């Protein structure tokens, strides 16, 4: 497909006809229908990120696709919501792909960086520098079938987790699960737990960035059929002990921000929460829980399989492309080097935990 004509708009400037066309194209995509790839997510990011844009691709007088992105200095582009979005790429009709460099030029971009590109994104996968696994839970066959998978693969894990759930009920109080909690106070509690977790593990607290906090509050109020903010909460004795905020479409629950109260850690409330989320998702007709890119012990315990996502950047000649390579590539390669060496990765994790301990000591002074 030739580059055709491209309109570049702020996400909120998309008309309802454009949004409906976007949804129709996503419905025809072979990829799982991640809510991060819907127009509602782009609009929510646009409200908190002034540099957010959507390129509307037109060919022969018809809309041929959409590319949501953010534009930085010297035209350095990135996937919209990069750093928090768990699925990225263009939304295109079937057929020949546009010329990437011509598309970037029409968007006044020198580069387009991504870190969780869909595997089916043939437009950008030639520019991928590294693949990553994104664990998933398949509940298309129903929750009992998922439990059978866990029981066959790791009977001790399932038995132990369910026993801890029962013990939580006996020792703390009645256990109750809400799949779609609407109380904003619980969302604030979840963010506080997550911030504390980031600090304990020596990682950067995402919620220090006001745009991320505002984005979550905005998405919590989003109720579109293919992109709805979903706050799931595990209660015991009338108080929240674990919670998760994510996005769901009709077929995919994108797991995003899980956390729990450390005071109840011995009951593994986070694992119990994820089992109840899988059960509720299956009952709602959702077939896939996407646990997101990255390795974690709890993901290994819960997953039934993995999807592949990609990290990299499409570039065109120019100063901005050079700056992208100088700014991002050394960091990406360092992270890849560490991940590929388990002993080094373990040592790095230990350093981060040490940083977290220092932070806690500083906070107590």
TrEMBL record:
Biased composition (Basic and acidic residues): 9-27
Protein name stated in the entry: Cellulose biosynthesis protein CelD
Domain BioF2-like acetyltransferase, first and last residues per copy: 159-299
Pfam family, one: Acetyltransf_6
InterPro entries for the chain: Acyl_CoA_acyltransferase (IPR016181), BioF2-like_GNAT_dom (IPR038740)
Chain segments carrying region Disordered: 1-33
């Amino acid at each position: 497909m030739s580059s055709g004509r491209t309109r570049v708009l702020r996400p909120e400037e998309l008309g309802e006809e454009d949004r409906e066309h976007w949804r129709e194209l996503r419905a025809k995509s072979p990829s799982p229908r991640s809510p991060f790839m819907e127009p509602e997510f782009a609009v929510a990011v646009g409200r908190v990120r002034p540099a957010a844009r959507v390129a509307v691709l037109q060919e022969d007088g018809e809309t041929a696709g959409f590319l949501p992105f953010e534009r930085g200095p010297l035209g350095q582009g990135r996937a919209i919501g990069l750093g928090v979005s768990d699925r990225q790429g263009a939304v295109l009709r079937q057929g020949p792909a546009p010329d990437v460099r011509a598309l970037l030029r029409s968007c006044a971009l020198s580069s387009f960086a991504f870190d969780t590109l869909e595997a089916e994104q043939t437009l950008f996968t030639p520019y991928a520098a590294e693949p990553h696994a994104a664990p998933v839970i398949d509940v298309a066959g129903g929750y009992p079938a998922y439990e059978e998978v866990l029981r066959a693969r790791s009977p001790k894990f399932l038995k132990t987790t369910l026993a801890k759930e029962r013990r939580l009920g006996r020792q703390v109080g009645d256990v109750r699960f809400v799949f779609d909690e609407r109380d904003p106070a619980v969302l604030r509690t979840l963010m506080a737990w997550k911030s504390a977790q980031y600090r304990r593990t020596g990682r950067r607290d995402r919620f220090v960035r006001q745009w991320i906090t505002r984005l979550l509050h905005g998405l919590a109020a989003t109720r579109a059929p293919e992109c709805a903010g979903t706050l799931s909460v595990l209660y015991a004795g009338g108080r929240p002990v674990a919670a998760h905020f994510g996005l769901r479409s009709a077929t995919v629950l994108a797991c995003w921000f899980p956390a729990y109260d450390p005071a109840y850690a011995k009951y593994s409330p986070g694992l119990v929460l994820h089992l109840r989320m899988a059960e509720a998702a299956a009952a709602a007709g959702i077939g896939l829980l996407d646990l997101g890119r990255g390795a974690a012990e709890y993901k290994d315990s819960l997953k039934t399989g993995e999807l592949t996502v990609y990290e990299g950047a499409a570039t065109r000649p120019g100063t901005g492309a050079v700056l992208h390579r100088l700014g991002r590539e050394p960091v990406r390669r360092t992270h890849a080097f560490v991940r590929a060496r388990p002993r080094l990765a373990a040592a790095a994790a230990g350093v981060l935990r040490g940083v977290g301990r220092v932070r806690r000591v500083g906070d107590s002074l």
